[in-house]
C-alpha cells in the first residue's frame, strides 16, 4: 500500500505559488505541480514553473493546454493594454482588466480531477487576500465554497474515500511576509517570474500590478529583489 502524502500544487512560476510549493514540501508532501498554457501573454511563466518544479523536487510537473483566449475578457488573453503604474488605492477600487474570467475555478477544477486520480486529498493554491489585485477568486469565502463543491462533485468525495482540502497558507499574509517565509524555506526567488507584460527579452516591465506588488513586497521585507526589470 502506498501511504505517500500527495499534494497537487497550482504553479504559475510566480512568487506566491513557489512559496506555497516550498511550504507543501516542508510539510512532507510529495509534490505534483500543475500549470496551464491558457493563451496568456506572459507565457514565460511556464518556463519559471518548470524551473521551480525541478528545484523543489516535484514528482511531476503537468502542463495542461486550455485556450482561454477564445473566450477573451482579459488583458492577459486579449490584445488590450495591461494597466501600468496604478497606485494602491486604484488597485483596491476596482477589479482590473487583468482578471481572467473564472480562471481559478477552471484551474482548481482541473487540479481536483488530477487530485482524485492521484488519490491526493490536498490541493495547494497561492491565493492571497491582502496584497493582491482585487480578484474575486482569491477571497477566503470563494475557497471555502470551492472546497465544499470538491467534496460534493467527486466520486472519491461522495464515497468518503477522500476529504478534499483546498490549502491556502498565504491567504492572510502580506507579500513581505510571504517572501520572508519563502526565504526561510530556502526558496530562490530568482527562479520565479511575476510580470504580466514582459519585454521581448524576458525582463519584467516593472509597472504592471503584479510587478508593483512584487517590488513592494521585497522593499517591505528589506530584501533585494532579484528580478531583472526593463
Poorly predicted regions are none
Order of helices and strands: EHEHEHHEHHEHH
Mean pLDDT: 94
**Strand adjacency order, main sheet:** 3-2-1-4-5
- Helix/strand class: alpha/beta
Proportion of strand residues: 5-15%
What is the radius of gyration? Answer: 17 Å
Main beta sheet, described? 5 strands, parallel
What is the CA–CA distance across the termini?
52 Å
CATH topology: Rossmann fold
**Second CATH tier, the architecture:** 3-Layer(aba) Sandwich
CATH class: Alpha Beta
CATH-wise, what's the superfamily?
Answer: HUPs
Number of strands: 5
| Percent helix range | 25-40%
* Number of H/I helices: 8
What is the molecular shape? globular
Q: Please, how many domains?
A: 1
Provide a quick synopsis of the model.
37% of the residues lie in helices and 11% in strands. It is built from eight helices and five strands, in the order βαβαβααβααβαα.
Write the layout of secondary structure elements.
Blueprint: E1 6-10, H1 15-26, E2 30-37, H2 45-55, E3 60-65, H3 88-93, H4 103-118, E4 122-124, H5 140-152, H6 155-158, E5 165-167, H7 175-184, H8 209-221
Helix pairs in contact: 1-7, 7-8
Describe the protein's architecture and organization.
This protein is of the alpha/beta class. The chain has one domain (6-221): Rossmann fold (3-Layer(aba) Sandwich), CATH 3.40.50.620. Helices cover 37% and strands 11% of the residues. The protein is built from eight helices and five strands, in the order E-H-E-H-E-H-H-E-H-H-E-H-H. It has a five-stranded parallel β-sheet with strand order 3-2-1-4-5, sandwiched between helices. Strand 2, helix 2 (45-55) and strand 3 (60-65) form a beta-alpha-beta unit. The longest helix is centred in the middle third of the chain and has 16 residues, at 103-118. The protein is globular, with a radius of gyration of 17 Å. The mean pLDDT is 94.
